[in-house]
Amino acid sequence: MPDVRRNVSCPNVGPHPVWDLRESVAGPDYPIGLPINVLEAFREWAEKTWGTGAPSADFFAPNLARDEGSRRSWARFERYAVSPAGIKALLGMLHETDARQTLSVIRVPTLVVHRQGDQVTRVEGARYIAERIQGAKYVELPGNDHFPWVGDTASVLNEVEEFVTGARHGPDFDRVLATVLFTDIVGATAKAANLGDRRWRDLLDRHHVVVRELLARFHGREIDTAGDGFLAAFDGPARAIRAACAIVNRVRELGLDLRAGLHTGECEVMGPKLSGIAVHVGARVAALAAPGEVLVSSTVKDLVAGSGLRFHERGAHELKGVPGDWHIYSVESD
Question: What's the CATH fold of domain 174-331?
């Protein structure tokens, strides 16, 4: 890799400075580098904010930076990985490493993939690498996440597959009808701050045990979990509703309030994951729920007619990013 004394920029996310270094110059032979005074300022900022998730999320995975669960996960990762003083020392060591002279001696097939809006390394740095490795293939992709497993991962995998095999197959999608359930802990950040990291982690582990136990009882399948939220799928909407109600009631015994939302529709299946508009609708429905409330779309309500489940109309709502108005209903507790 080239001299890592390069541009660093950061979006104005949260209470930290905006590092706009696109005009910075480290030297006449490497004009895209980073001046030492700006580097030192960044290292000081990273040391002060390390453990909050800001350095990792805001710079390396900005598409996850505004997701509360993801930020907590990044914060935990930072605390477990290295101390604040350690990250400051590590950044200094990395920025003192200059490997530019080794690029010209590389003689193996090389693929350089870079996202155009990467906020850790400028696109000029990736071009610099590709230009100096003989025969390297260079691909620029849209996006601003540094980690290849965040954002549009399919495009990255397609480029790697074609480079290694000579052919590009793309993802193999299937579609299934499923009822998706989203749950989320209300006021998780305040609760975590009040309890402290260790007690909050213990409580979160107990929450996960309860949710997974009830998903298994009602034949639901855990699709994903991000921090304190769950996404699960069911092949029957009535069982999904009863599972949601059971989860909300049981978790309340732990001193936690959940909000839950359900929608039924066709989902795209790729391995163990689900995606598509139905999943987005389920997430938007859950976001409307009050503490301790289970909300469903009109699709779910219509499908469970005759099940004995009762609902209260919550009116028509616009769901962000989803066309049209959606009639939402709350599930009445027995």
Answer: Alpha-Beta Plaits (3.30.70)
Summarised one tens digit per residue, pLDDT across range 124-164 is 889 999 999 999 999 999 988 898 988 888 889 999 999 99
Domains of the chain, residue spans = 36-165, 174-331
The fold for domain 36-165 equals Rossmann fold (3.40.50)
Strand partners, 229: 226
